[in-house]
Description:
Oligomer: single chain
CATH architecture of the largest domain: 3-Layer(aba) Sandwich
Helix content: 40-55%
CATH superfamily of the largest domain: Gcn5-related N-acetyltransferase (GNAT)
Amino acid sequence: MPTIRVDDSPAALAPDAWNRLLAASAQATPFMRHEYLQALHDSGSAVAGTGWQPMFLSVWDDERLIAACPAWLKTHSYGEYVFDWAWADAYRRHGLRYYPKLLVAVPFTPVPGSRLLAVDDASRLLLAQALRGLAGETHASSLHVLFGDPADQAALAAAGCTARAGVQFHWTNGGDADFAAFLARLQRDKRKKIQQEQRRVREAGVVFEAREGAAISPADWDFFYRCYQQTYREHHSTPYLSRDFFARMASDMPAHWLMFTARRGGDRVACSLIALDPQRRAAFGRYWGAVEHIPHLHFDACYYQPLAWCMAHGYQRFEGGAQGEHKMARGLMPTPTASSHWLAHPAFADAVNDFLAREGEAIAGYVDELGEHTPFKTKSAADAASSRAGES
């Protein structure tokens, strides 16, 4: 008979056993590696003191780990990117308590991927059911599993959760050998705009350097963190992640990081950090910041430089992060995402489920509409351009 365990730190679970479950998952990402989650904990970035009380849930068959997920009891909704502030406000206005709530996610990381790690679907369903049980035992108002993969969604639906649709903007490799070939596939106005933006950055005297893995020095990480803090300061907010977290990334997961540093006159002026999944040839835009304003530098550092790097290194996907229709004009196309939710209060559950159904229909229509405004040349336009090139 499988047994269920709840631990207050990822350290209670063997890294090798956890990472084996992750490696077998359909949509594994570096952000679900044991090292990443442990760094969030040990650096004080996602702990009870910051409103993230760890409750790592696992399912065991004797001594064998057969399913596990990172869970937190939350006292707020910051750092999640699937917004339920309106739900919390509705609870408050009705004199009800919304927090704590039980959350399964990667803190501060809106990257879709596997969340319920399991050796098979039966074990995943056990884990989903155990999450429902844990929500009841902790007197949580609700359960939320963010940006899960289809296997997660199926298990959670069977456990009584309702899906919530979302959309992000991702680039997938269309066979482009380099950035010039990518630009050639874009419609003329989109291509000219990108070329103009990059030209303005060059005319400002900015050059980029890319460093990967162990080649990223402590000084590089220090400057990155200065930029990271500046971005939050400009938004009158406080950084979620500590400098110690990034020090742990440099030491424990160096192969998963790529850093672009912008220099002008030899001085660093901006930085963007990209996460890498070398095995699956995927890259993820994570953080950016600048110590001075230079027009269009954000687009170059966060999209054009990473896309060019991906093409040059045979990467097949680049995820630009949450939200942002402006990414479409830069070749990142709408991609559906999903999360799963369960509310304990019957009346609120009915209201939220009705809302999610209507929201899902609206998002499906929105994605369809966006698809009609592709930044790429249509086949007929591309054929005509090829024909003209052949005649000249």
